[in-house]
């Protein structure tokens, strides 16, 4: 059964928990831990027999919501007035031990038919592991609560951004994309050893690899989509690729029509920044009908290759003409192998600017330009 969203009692005073807010503080809930230990000042009465939730089930998981249900013994079930839900991010053994721990979230809801929907971007993040436990509670006339023991602890992981969320990111990116500049080549910078390895071990063909975790935490392509990164940005005064790069002093250049043409589809993948004034847009080019195309078709918003704010391929006088957005840095992922014989490899004359690398770069969660209200 679908029920009204379950909100944090201190975050939304118009939620179904409004009555609870007047009588029960968040602090009081936190003073009752999963072991049933309660402070004498917590406002929660001594424990009496209430059914303990068991066989907890989590379903309909999205990037910022889930449904929860459980079973209970019928004994004293009619005395239950509220549910307490203890939600915590699962500890990461590799996390920074000096970083402040996330504050556990204690949720309060009136006893409604199950399953109930838990929704809230202020305490749920995409692609994040959580633990959850439940108590039943009975509100007394004096405002105190009688509570059951905590249920067993269940683990689950929230989902990636959906197409709906990515479309929201897309619309925010369109606002700052700027005017379009003409370009003619895609390029990829790497170290000399990379290209030597490709020639020796992969028959001269660059192979797709799994995208790293850079960008939005909820991006469905991070750690899943296989592809090859290319750039297409040009210098305003020359119309040619810049001579500097953060990724290596050797550059593979390939004519734009070799990768982006009427036989490919174009998808929007992400929009982010790294605590800087400039922003990145990730686009995916996939040959029609390829595995990469099928992957993107299910998860990413598709763009009109001839008419969008970021990267276009149009025909003029029988020739394909290409334009890219000026005010964002485009990162283009091509999902199929690319043979080096289709282009050229040469050393650039500029510098290797490591500070501009986006490898595993984390998105600035406070930026109002590139964030949406469903976690980061």
From TrEMBL:
One Gene Ontology CC term in the entry: cytoplasm
The organism's place on the tree of life at top rank: Eukaryota
Location of the Fibronectin type-III domain: 52-161
PROSITE patterns per UniProt: FN3
Alphabetical list of Pfam families matching this protein: fn3 (PF00041), PHYHIP_C (PF19281)
Protein function: May play a role in the development of the central system.
Family, similarity comment: Belongs to the PHYHIP family.
Entry protein name: Phytanoyl-CoA hydroxylase-interacting protein-like isoform 1
Source organism (scientific name): Heterocephalus glaber (Naked mole rat)
């Amino acid at each position: 059964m679908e029920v009204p969203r379950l909100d944090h009692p201190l975050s939304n005073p118009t939620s179904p928990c409004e009555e609870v807010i007047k009588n029960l503080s968040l602090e009081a809930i936190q003073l009752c831990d999963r072991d049933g230990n309660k402070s004498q000042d917590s406002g929660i009465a001594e424990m009496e027999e209430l059914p303990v939730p068991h066989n907890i089930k989590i379903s309909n998981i999205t990037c910022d919501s889930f449904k929860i249900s459980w079973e209970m013994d019928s004994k004293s079930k009619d005395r239950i007035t509220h549910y307490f839900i203890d939600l915590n991010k699962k500890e990461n053994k590799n996390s920074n031990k000096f970083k402040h721990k996330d504050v556990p979230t204690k949720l309060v809801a009136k006893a409604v038919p199950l399953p109930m929907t838990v929704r809230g971007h202020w305490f749920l993040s995409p692609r994040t592991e959580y633990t959850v436990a439940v108590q039943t509670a009975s509100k007394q006339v004096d405002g105190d609560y009688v509570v059951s023991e905590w249920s067993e602890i269940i683990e689950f992981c929230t989902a990636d951004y959906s197409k709906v969320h990515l479309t929201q990111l897309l619309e925010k990116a369109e606002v700052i994309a700027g005017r379009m500049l003409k370009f003619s080549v895609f390029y990829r910078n790497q170290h000399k050893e990379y290209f030597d390895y490709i020639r020796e071990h992969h028959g001269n063909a660059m192979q797709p690899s799994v995208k790293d975790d850079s960008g939005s935490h909820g991006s469905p392509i991070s750690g899943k989509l296989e592809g090859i990164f290319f750039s297409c940005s040009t210098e305003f005064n020359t119309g040619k690729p810049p001579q500097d790069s953060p990724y290596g002093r050797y550059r593979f250049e390939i004519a734009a029509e070799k990768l982006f043409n009427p036989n490919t589809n174009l998808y929007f993948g992400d929009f982010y920044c790294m605590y800087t004034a400039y922003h990145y847009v990730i686009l995916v080019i996939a040959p029609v009908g390829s595995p990469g195309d099928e992957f993107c078709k299910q998860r990413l918003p598709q763009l009109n290759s001839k008419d969008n704010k970021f990267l276009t391929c149009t025909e003029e006088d029988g020739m394909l003409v290409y334009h890219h957005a000026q005010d964002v840095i485009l990162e283009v992922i091509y999902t199929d192998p690319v043979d080096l014989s289709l282009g050229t490899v040469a050393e650039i004359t500029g510098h290797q600017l490591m500070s501009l690398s986006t490898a595993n770069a984390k998105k600035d969660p406070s930026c109002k330009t590139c964030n949406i209200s469903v976690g980061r």
